[in-house]
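[Q] Does anyone have a clean structure-token version of this?
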Amino acid sequence: MAEVPFFVYTDFDIFNRKAVQSAVLETTETIYKPITSVDQTDIEFSIPGDVDTYIDLDLKLYIKGKLTKKDGTNLTATDFTAGK
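[A] Here you go.
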């Protein structure tokens, strides 16, 4: 490898490979609750970030509820439940 002259900064060399951290130091799983009312059509969350942490947005949305008919009665075994 050729010696780099003292007047050429390696920070400005766009063809050099940049160092990439390939090790994970720690993994943290955090539960966030919605900041809006759940009876709306949109559910909004506030996920704060910082410059030292990578946030993988592999989101999992767990919903706990009960399906009922429009009049509030329970579903039977012959009722179909599917989205449009």
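[Q] Thanks! Anything notable?
[A] The radius of gyration is 26 Å.
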